[in-house]
Design goal:
Length: about 375
């Protein structure tokens, strides 16, 4: 008789004074399942109440071992299947994921995220609230949700809207990928650690004695090196175009400009869900004036609309189908053109389907 042992998707252990978490779903680039969200929540709550644990460190893993890939987001195949079939677990996934994001932002001990390799979507949700956000020369960071007819959730409205200038609008609408230097410059990371030094720093956290959690944080930060930003030259363009009032204004201005960057950026926007571009611009601008808890409640409302409340078609189910399931890369967006989206199509996304007292995230402070 052969026994198949399925490895845990979240590995956790306490060594010395630090709680260590390794995301262990490398074949899926550590995309978060509902089970992983629940394991992370339970572990973090237990360690928050454990006086032996002064700080928490989290990393991803790739097929060769630890590091190399942090987390590529949520499990979009599950979201497609659950969204297509009306599976209520999709509701649990988003409610519990956002509650986890909120816990990380408000964690009472230093939470240190080693953001090596791919850090996208849900991976940003479990790292942006960290006390120390560590990137490497291999980091590929993005919130690419508009490509699948979704919006930058997991608190994306909150943390993207707090980037300098109109960088938040640019990253949210295009889904463009940035590296370590740009992540630091745009306040989405705190410092760069060379990838070949991660293991030594990680191991030292478990073997050295520290006075307190802040000393652990300071030890990691002392290993940072300089990183160069690649999009600095485009910053003036980003602010010029992405501060415009509407998506239509942004695209028209980009298409009438005579630079390679503007043409490429306009072409990217033309591939995204026209409806969700309008929704996302509204999301980022609303979130700029919200606290984290209110932003997460707004995003929870938006998710319900994305999957269940839009008559006729879910842009998100269609986007995931085209990108990740059938992989034909020809989503049938509805409406098909940026110019055909009306304010009446956008407004419902921001109407909560729940009364305040019954909201799934009512308890978040």
């Amino acid at each position: 008789m052969t026994e198949t042992v399925v490895a845990a998707e979240v590995l956790s252990e306490v060594r010395g004074q630090v709680g260590f978490i390794t995301l262990n779903r490398p074949r899926a680039l550590n995309a978060l399942s509902l089970g992983m969200v629940r394991d992370l929540m339970a572990t973090l709550l237990a360690w928050q109440a454990d006086d032996r644990v002064l700080a928490v460190a989290i990393r991803g893993s790739n097929k060769e071992g630890p590091f190399g890939a942090f987390c590529a987001g949520g499990d979009i195949r599950f979201l497609h299947q659950a969204g297509s079939q009306g599976n209520p677990l999709i509701e649990d996934f988003f409610t519990e994921e956002y509650a986890l994001n909120h816990l990380i932002h408000n964690y009472t001990k230093p939470y240190i995220a080693f953001m090596d390799g791919i850090v996208m979507g849900g991976g940003m949700g479990i790292s942006q609230g960290a006390a120390l956000r560590v990137v490497t020369e291999r980091t590929k960071m993005a919130m690419p949700e508009t490509a699948i007819g979704l919006f930058p959730d997991v608190g994306g409205g909150y943390f993207l809207s707090r980037c300098p200038g109109s960088v938040g609008e640019w990253l949210a609408l295009t889904g463009d990928t940035i590296g370590a230097g740009d992540a630091i410059e745009n306040q989405l990371a705190d410092g760069c650690l060379p990838s070949d030094q991660q293991a030594a720093v990680w191991d030292a956290l478990g073997s050295q004695h520290f006075a307190d959690g802040q000393a652990i944080r300071a030890f990691v930060a002392s290993k940072f090196v300089a990183a160069s930003a690649h999009h600095t030259s485009a910053r003036a363009d980003i602010d010029q175009y992405f501060s415009l009032p509407t998506v239509g204004d942004i695209v028209r201005a980009l298409e009438s400009a005579d630079t390679d960057w503007a043409r490429a950026t306009a072409a990217t926007l033309r591939k995204r869900s026209p409806l969700m571009l309008h929704v996302v611009l509204e999301q980022i601008r609303r979130a700029r004036h919200m606290g984290l808890a209110d932003d997460l409640r707004m995003e929870r409302d938006m998710v319900r609309h994305c999957f269940f409340l839009r008559p006729g078609q879910s842009e998100t189910v269609e986007g995931i189908r085209a990108l990740a399931v059938d992989k034909d890369h020809t989503p049938k967006w509805n409406p098909g053109r940026i110019e055909d989206v009306t304010p009446e199509m956008v407004t419902p996304f921001f109407a909560s389907p729940w009364p305040v007292h019954a909201h799934p995230l009512a308890a978040l402070k």
